[in-house]
Amino acid sequence: MEKQFLESYTGQTTAELLALKDKYRIDSLILAFEQAIQNKEDSDLSEPERHNLAIEAMEREVNNGGWEQFFGNTENEFDESLPQALDAIGCPNTAQLSREAIDASRHGADLEDFDVRYYALSESIEDRLFEYISANADAIKLD
Q1: pLDDT of residue 96
Q2: Residue 1 scores a pLDDT above 90
Q3: What is the extent of the structural domain holding 88?
Q4: Confidence class of residue 143 from pLDDT cuts 50, 70 and 90?
Q5: In b/e form, how buried is each residue of 3-39, taking b as 16+ CB within 10 angstroms?
Q6: DSSP secondary structure letters along 74-131
Q7: Residues 25-40: what's their mean pLDDT?
Q8: Which of 43, 91, 129, 135 would bridge with 86, disulfide CB 3.0–4.6 Å?
Q9: Cα(12)–Cα(98) distance, rounded to whole angstroms?
């Protein structure tokens, strides 16, 4: 049986969202975490919450329009935290690629090669991010 897509965050706690992993697709649960975390004040965010936001921004933007779109739409908000976040979840190849893309972006270089390299990577960012969220659930406080 195919899992359902959780349409949106509706006030679940961290534990409640994690408990839905057998019913709902992992990508939809990660999106729900992102939606909940975005409702918090920036000064109240824990490191794992910041990591979630950085990685989800990258996934959404690069998968929809490449690194150029990522840098344009995030206004370089995640340049410092993205490589660290990817390392934290166990995606060293994507972390290194993000470092290189950030550097290239700062120097005005063409980013198309970085898009090709990103799509060729085989690290399961989604699964590793969910594992990271699960392992750091105590630092992800949802009301």
Answers
A1: 98
A2: no
A3: 47-135
A4: confident
A5: eeebeebeebebeebbebeeebbbbbbbbbbbebbee
A6: HTTTTTTTHHHHHHHTT-HHHHHHHHHHHHHHHTT---HHHHHHHHH----HHHHHHH
A7: 96
A8: 91
A9: 32
Is 18 within a domain? no
Closest CA relative to residue 56, chosen from 132, 141, 114: 132
Q: Report the pLDDT averaged over residues 93-101.
A: 98
Given a cut of 80, is residue 54 above it in pLDDT? yes
- Residue 98: Cβ within 10 Å count: 27
Query: Is residue 26 domain-resident?
Result: no
Q: What is the mean pLDDT of the chain?
A: 96
In degrees, to the nearest 5, what angle opens at C-alpha 127 toward C-alphas 137 and 142? 25
- Residue in 44, 136, 15 with CA at minimum distance from that of residue 85: 136
The whole model's pTM is what?
Answer: 0.95
Determine how many CB atoms are found less than 10 A away from the CB of residue 101: 27
**42: in domain:** no
Mean pLDDT within 42-63: 97
Residue 141 maps to a domain: no
Into how many domains does the chain fold?
A: 1
